[in-house]
Amino acid sequence: MELKGKVHYVGVNDRTKALFENLWPLPYGVSYNSYLIADDEMVALIDTVDVAFFEVYLKKIRSVIGDRKIDYLIINHMEPDHSGSISLIKQYYPDIVLVGNKKTFDMVEGYYGLTGDRYVVGEGDFLKIGHHNLRFYLIPMVHWPETMVTFDETEGILFSGDAFGCFGALNGGCIDKNINTDIYWNEMRRYYSNIVGKFGNPVQKALQKCSGLPIKMICSTHGPVWEENIPQVVDMYDKMSRYEGEEGVVIVYGTMYGNTEELAEAIAEELSAQGIKNIIMHNASYTHHSFILSDIFKYKGLIVGCTTYNMNLYPEIQSLLDKVAAREMKNRIMGYFGSFTWASAAVKKLGEYTEKLKFEVVGNPVEMKQTMKADNYLQAKALAKAMADRLKADRK
Ligand SMILES: Cc1cc2nc3c(=O)[nH]c(=O)nc-3n(C[C@H](O)[C@H](O)[C@H](O)COP(=O)(O)O)c2cc1C
User: Fold this and answer.
1) Which residues does residue 133 pair with via DSSP β-bridges, in sequence order?
2) Which residues line ligand 1 (CB under 6 A)?
3) Is 117's pLDDT higher than 90?
4) CA trace torsion 164, 244, 297, 163 (10° rounding)
5) Is the terminal CB of the chain with fewer CB neighbours within 10 Å at N or C?
6) ipTM strictly over 0.95?
């Protein structure tokens, strides 16, 4: 599929993998994007695909260039879902020269034992592929240390690696202006929050580095090619990497027998009564944490409820909060509540977590013994009102 100026999409779709990284569900599948610059004089391949798809990948490459050789393989990112076919590409195209930075080649040798022809590039280095002038920029930790982007100065195409990527296979078309992009926006936030979420600062640096480039098209390694929606995509990555949340509250709770959930319902009702429209409720044992993390990245308010389990937090809440902490999230406003039957621990532990997370605490925590009594109900409403007032204070 030609994108423009002899640049072709040769990526593949994976609709069978259950969990990306063996962790994150893929309800819409995922694409592994690779691009081919098939200029009259020279051919360059940019990133490869998961090795399980090599046959279909090779067919796609050959449908564009037939028996021509490939001169260069540019490796923007070494994660195996993109680097997995490097060894086989090298077997089929033995004269191909690998292009990457110093850190790339440490991984090329370590993963694939390849030590042959290479072109080691540094920040701002240049490679000419026919009429395409390619320039390389290093964007370490977006989201591995070797990550770089390749900018085609001739066509204004940014080959961005995982940056600006999102879950979701491509169903026929691949350029945003030709397809219905509805599903990809949430899938982009979920991809970012699950995979890249910890690396807000490196993403900010990468955005600054790319901000001066005259980008007309973004070709990332997952999801659609962005042409029409570049400002929206960049804005979304900017906001997510600054951990900026919209007005709204995620209420997430861990319960075994439903009593803690009753408190959650009371809080949600009062938030709504106070004029908060975006209220998302998650039972942490039911919704995969991948989706909960995505919502926590979206909204500014977070209220966590947890029952006491063997003098600790309920395991699913503990596990979720560990994931939030691992992403070093900032700028969240948090309230919390908990329950117990004979000896309480959950509320105290949640309090300790707010310190670890460095979130702004709002309202008084509600601690409920066994079932929701009238005073717990009033305390829950007060917590919800405190959250609503705090969010409304940020309205312009
Ligand atoms: C495995 C297990 C461990 C528990 N550990 C504690 C505990 O350490 N302290 C306590 O006060 N209650 C403990 N409880 C009792 C819970 O507080 C009680 O089941 C309560 O109903 C849980 O709230 P829920 O209705 O929201 O699930 C435990 C219950 C279970 C099933």
Assistant:
1) 128
2) 255-260, 307-311, 339-344
3) no
4) 10
5) C
6) yes
